[in-house]
Write a structure and sequence with these properties.
321 residues; two-stranded antiparallel ribbon; 50% helix; globular
Length: 321
């Protein structure tokens, strides 16, 4: 086990990240709230490391102006620090993030409601891509159970603080899986395609973050089984983009309309969202998180709106191919 220290940005609270992951079903198997040997509350993240795909687990605790971590599974502490910082948003200017709420009353209310929360991304584009294949046409709890079962049967076990953390298989192991209980054969085939893309470096977070947004989304949609929503999930949540206005999910516009009391449209979203820069994606996450607290998350009109948005984005991706 090795030690990790990350400077804590102004305004960040690890407890806020723990609270988010406690109710985030797609993160099942990746994050766990637990108690450290010294009695402190901690957040444990278990994931595949960028590029090497080593299985790692890191137990994080907040202490003064630092986030302290115990790391198992690798000696590459620098890589773990970079990935954890990306996942939780620890590599930004916290005062600049809070300044967005100072100039926008709605954002300020959301920041106060979820005090100390910056962001909570998926571990990597690879992690987001595998979830995007597993989850469709399943409820979230069922999809999470299947993901955890795959990790237990085909992944790697990492021991940390007396607990075993099962990490979803690396691309080479995923490519060898012939069948998965509860998962249609076509999804297993698509998972093998995701494994090949990851092995080829196409799902590298730094690579995607360096690309033009539209080019990245279009390229991702060339992968089998990856449509507009999945591409957006991989890019925005897997690569942990900070400043963007995603439009594949109509719930975003619905959340905007409810929060700001406006007629929701993509044009209105982009107009209001200009003031959120350079943290537009983080504000979008807060809007979605707030919407999820209400019955409006499943508003009847959203199903047709999602289909329409998907067709529009798929056409745009084809035009750039």
């Amino acid at each position: 086990m090795t030690k990790l220290v990350i400077p804590k940005p102004f305004g960040f609270r690890l407890a806020a990240a723990r609270a988010f992951y406690a109710g985030f079903t797609p993160g099942s198997g990746m994050a766990a709230a637990s108690v450290a040997p010294d009695g402190d509350d901690e957040l444990v993240l278990a994931f595949r490391l960028d590029r090497t795909f080593e299985a790692v687990a890191v137990a994080l605790r907040e202490r003064g102006d630092s986030i302290l971590g115990d790391v198992a599974g690798t000696r590459d502490v620098a890589a773990v620090r970079a990935q954890v910082s990306r996942i939780l948003g620890l590599d930004v200017d916290g005062a600049a993030w809070l300044a967005v709420g100072a100039r926008d009353e709605v954002v300020g209310r959301l920041q106060a409601r979820y005090a100390g929360f910056f962001t909570a991304a998926k571990a990597s584009p690879y992690d987001a891509a595998t979830w995007s294949i597993i989850a469709p046409r399943l409820n979230m709890t069922q999809a999470a159970r299947i993901k955890i079962a795959i990790a237990e049967s085909h992944g790697d076990a990492v021991e940390l603080h007396g607990r075993t953390h099962h990490v979803f298989p690396a691309p080479d192991a995923l490519a060898r899986i012939a069948a998965i209980d509860g998962l249609a054969d076509v999804k297993v085939q698509r998972l093998r395609g995701i494994a090949a893309a990851a092995s080829a470096g196409l799902l590298d977070a730094d690579r995607l973050r360096a690309m033009d947004e539209r080019d990245a989304l279009a390229e991702l949609q060339t992968l089998r089984g990856i449509g507009p929503w999945a591409a957006s999930h991989i890019y925005y949540r897997g690569a942990a983009i900070v400043d963007a206005l995603p439009t594949a999910e109509p719930r975003v516009l619905h959340a905007l309309g409810l929060a700001y009391g406006v007629a929701p449209s993509e044009a209105t979203y982009r107009r209001i969202g200009r003031a959120w820069s350079p943290f537009a994606m983080w504000v979008t996450i807060l809007l979605m998180r707030d919407l999820a607290r209400t019955d409006e998350w499943n508003a009847p009109h959203l199903r047709a709106a999602r289909a329409k948005a998907g067709r529009k984005l798929a056409a745009a991706a084809r035009s750039r191919a």
